[in-house]
Amino acid sequence: MYRFLLTRQWVILTLIALLLIPTMIKLGFWQKHRYEERSARNQLVTDALSAKPVPVEQLTSPGHAVTRAERYRSVTATGTFDTSHEVVVRRRVNSDDEVGFHVLTPFRLSDGKVLLVNRGWIPANGVQTAFPKIPAPPAGRTTVTGRLMTDETTAASGIKNIAGLPDRQVMLINSEQETRRLGAQVLGGYIEQTAPESKGGTPQQISDPGKEDAPLNYAYMIQWWLFAAAVPVGWVVLVRRETRDRANAAAGEKTAETEPAVV
């Protein structure tokens, strides 16, 4: 009855089914890993944003690489903005996907070290090769608050660090790069300023980091495993249908053979 399973068509179909099952199970585990990874990141972001602000030098120092656990931590610093060495970061978008610049201003601390402060986003307003007009930060001794961020690299961001840019423009916010440019001790990483707020809303302060959609990966995980379970069920259904069709065809042929010929 099941000799048809040895035909070329059914052998190929069975092999495909046998390959699909472990592949779909593996994809389900991959989505499970992504779900756990994203959930852990979301928890880190939540914990960091809800933590009490601390002085920036408790978490970073010159040459320090900001860790995942330190990223997004709220920090404070007291010093003065150095607008004479201010630069803009090219090709950055705001929440409305408008292309412009991020304003990166060195912030000189009381002990002479420098903290890089991303003051926010401004529109390009014309030719991007020209240095834009930037509203001045608070003058004199100031206390700023912001989210501690890791140094940007090409490998992590995908942004190429192009050479030969117009004066006072950079592609990446990187403390090692700024150490060479400023000739000073620059704290590792940088901060996205959250306070004090900009006068007139310019530069536009960068919004809180959004959470990754971990539940979507969970749904994909369940979906792949359901697909894996459906493959053998579908194979059995096809076999039973084929068996039934062949039995009906055989019965029809037998009936035709036994019926007397009509004269």
From TrEMBL:
Keyword Transmembrane found: yes
- Give the record's membrane topology: Multi-pass membrane protein
Transmembrane ranges, per UniProt, are 218-238
Keywords attached to this entry: Cell membrane, Membrane, Transmembrane, Transmembrane helix
- Entries under CDD domains matching the protein: SURF1
Q: Give the main location.
A: membrane
Subcellular location(s): the record lists: Cell membrane; Membrane
Q: Which GO terms describe its cellular component?
A: plasma membrane
* Keyword Transferase belongs to the record: no
Q: Give the Pfam families listed for this entry.
A: SURF1
Note the superkingdom of the native organism. Answer: Bacteria
Q: Which PROSITE patterns does this one have?
A: SURF1
Q: Which PANTHER family match?
A: SURFEIT LOCUS PROTEIN, SURFEIT LOCUS PROTEIN 1
Protein family according to the UniProt entry: Belongs to the SURF1 family.
Protein name in UniProt: SURF1-like protein
Q: Which organism is it from?
A: Streptomyces brasiliensis
